Automatic annotation (TrEMBL):
Pfam families: GT87. GO terms for molecular function: hexosyltransferase activity. The keyword Acyltransferase does not apply. The keyword Transmembrane applies. This is Unannotated protein. Keywords: Cell membrane, Membrane, Transferase, Transmembrane, Transmembrane helix.
Amino acid sequence: MTFTTKGLESYCVKGRFYSVAILFSGAAVVIILAWLSVYGANFRPWLFQSHYIVHFPDLNARINQMWALDHLGLLYTPFATEAFTYPPPAIFLFWPLNLISKTSGFFLWTLFTILCLTITYYVAFTYSGFRRGTLALGVSFWSSAITVMIFPPMIECLAWGQTSTILIALLAADFLAIEGRRKGILTGIAAAIKLYPGIFIIFFGFQRKWRAAGTALTSFLLLVAASWILWPRQSTTFFFKRLLNGSEVTHFESYSAFSGTYESASIWSFLKRLTFLPSSLAFFLLIACSIAVLTIGLIASVRLYRASWKISSLVTLLFVTSLLSPVSWDHYFTFTPLLLFAAVEVGRKTRFGYSALATFTVFLIPWYFFRAPVTDPTTSFTIQDIWITILTFVARNAYIFASTFFIGAAWFETRQNREMNSTQSRPVDLGWRQRLPLQFLTKGMAEPAGGSINS
């Protein structure tokens, strides 16, 4: 078929029109969802019903704490359920909310949270081959809207007013989109806000990317220094009276009998659920499991990165970070939609691709519904109670099992391919674009990156 100049111009105009339509409609849906989540009295996405009925309790506490900091000089008060557990540099993130009304703050924060998710999708799409521009951004908006409506970790993130998508956007942009002298700046900012992303600085060291590691460490220290200058008493309290003496971790024991037992997916919380273990044995297992997860995860992520499977490497590191945190609530796992990109990146029909898809499926299930104990210990124990107990156990541990499974799959995939590719490079699957369900969205895509484990 031969295209005339007029026909080609018409095709390009239609293509631009569709791209702009997708962009503006996706952005409008995102804004509407954010508005309804705050101002819609009876609106909740379907998973909010009955179980996700909270209305920004964590964010509300942060706003109150910023007011107390300004007017009373108080921030790190004795630990409570809604205590401020962030490092002092996080004040820069929350303090502007003190300048507007709470309701406006809830709306802007919700919108910002969804926009950060959109940035993560945009970075992942463009890294995977989408040409940067209107179409990729529009698809990212629509992906965020769908995620907000059906994905349990994201729904919990919005319901509580949490920061996970903000941190993930910083890490994904730095990991996938930024190279050169600026690489590491966003990682340092993320580590200053929450500390746990500091594992990415260790990863840069494993990769021998000393400039990136130094840049990340420098941006982290600059933010810490700035917060120390502005809030010296609060900084001293956090670093010397909370962090160094371990109270920043041990305070979770005060309510681990409920929240830490039922909802958290960290190694520490899993061992706390095993109440029959002696404390000394539990501590030994905590150290041993943490070292194993950190070592295996870092080695696997380095190998994936060297194979140019950077999304898979990023997801592996995020799982490691979540497991090693003192607690890992559901909203820590808002990054798991990236598993779909990891499956496409490595190959959906490979064992690792199937592992990524299986792990993603686990995070689609609203396990929250099944975590609370439903049997009455004062009554006789029936066969039905046994099945309910098994379901409760699976629901409480699904995230940690899925996370461990994926890290293990990444390890075995890279180990096997390292041995197979010792003399030749692994062929790169260049036909994945034709297997996407929406082929018209892939027009003008660049070839995906790929290579050997040993490259």
